[in-house]
Amino acid sequence: MATIKDVARLAGVGLGTASRVVSGKGSVSPATLEKVRKAIEELDFRPSHAARSLLSGSSQMVGVYIPVLSGTFYTPILQLIDTELRAAGLHMVVAFGVGLGDERRQAIEGIEFLMERGCDGLLVMTNSLHDEDVAVLGVQQSEVVLLNHSFEAIADQCFTVDHTLGGRRAARALLDFQHRHIAVIAGPSRLVDSVERISGFMAELSENGVDTAGMWIAESDFSPAGGWKAAKELVESGRQVSALFCANDEMAVGALSYFQEAGVRVPHDLSVIGYDDTPSAEFSAPRLTSVHMPWREMTLAGVNALLNRCYGLDRPVSRDFPVTITLRASLAQATPVRSATRKKP
Question: Where are the alpha helices (DSSP H) in the chain?
Fold first, then answer.
């Protein structure tokens, strides 16, 4: 395989001159440019990624950190990022939370891993970091964009969606269908975005006369298994409810699975609403009504902002991310409440 040295030798020029032609940086005479180009063509020279990085001073790689590599939530986000980067001639390197430490330590180690690989910039999707973790990045702060979290010190580099509004949208959808006896499967209380969506949900209900003090609430882990387990607890509790709000779609899908097994008909006996509007919501049984969070728009804005910072581009960057409801078959008008109990054979 031909090298840049072979090109320089065949063209009869110095290595630095050949490098300037390949990288497109620096000036050379038209005659020299023609000689080097002919040598490249004759040798079928294709610079490796490492060689291009050395020539351009850029790795042409963007690092992406996500907390977990599982489920249906992060896959579309990673696909969008990869598509955008490839269209710009760039590559994606992914790190995710592993190891023995807590979520914060995993995020720090994941970011360090990406930085050690020479990534030109980082897209970080976690809300486990603290202000001091961002400060430690020093000059490299300017090469980091955060998704779904915000720090005042780098506010222009943070892109998030309005989870409080998302929770309110979920509550409003249930109220519009006359539901007032409602159960909730919440996400982890240690996660800011989880707390925000539940807070918004409860506030909307309270402002519309629903007594939330005695509401049945279970905290789970955003997984289908967690949703299944919480739904089982709801049924076994014998609580009389007409609707269930799940703080993400994966828990909602798990809950739907348990209800089907237990003989609880959705939406005839119990309406269910999820959150995120991931692909799983569209193809669950029944199809899941969900709060549509603008993850695609938020991610694209973050990608564009990072590419502008790292590569001097001028891509459009929006901060307007509308939150809506996608109505599907799992939500129906409230009927007289009954216990969410297992049907007798």
Answer: 4-11, 15-23, 30-43, 49-56, 74-87, 103-116, 131-135, 163-176, 192-207, 224-237, 249-262, 279-282, 295-311
Q: Which amino acid is at 41?
A: E
Q: What would the pLDDT profile of 260-291 be if each residue is shown by its tens digit?
A: 999 999 999 999 999 999 999 999 999 999 99
pTM assigned to the model: 0.81
Task: Kindly report, residue by residue over 30-49, the tens digit of the pLDDT.
Answer: 888 889 888 888 888 776 55
Domains in the chain: ranges and CATH: 4-56 (1.10.260.40), 61-160 (3.40.50.2300), 163-293+326-339 (3.40.50.2300)
What CA–CA distance (Å, rounded) separates 82 from 297? 15
Per-residue DSSP letters for 163-202?
A: HHHHHHHHHHHHHHTT--SEEEEE--TTSHHHHHHHHHHH
Reported as a pLDDT band with limits 50, 70 and 90, residue 54 is very low
Question: For the stretch 162-201, what's the b/e string if a residue is b when 16 or more beta carbons lie within 10 angstroms of its beta carbon?
Answer: bbbbbbbbbbbbbbebebbbbbbbbbeeebebbbbbbebb
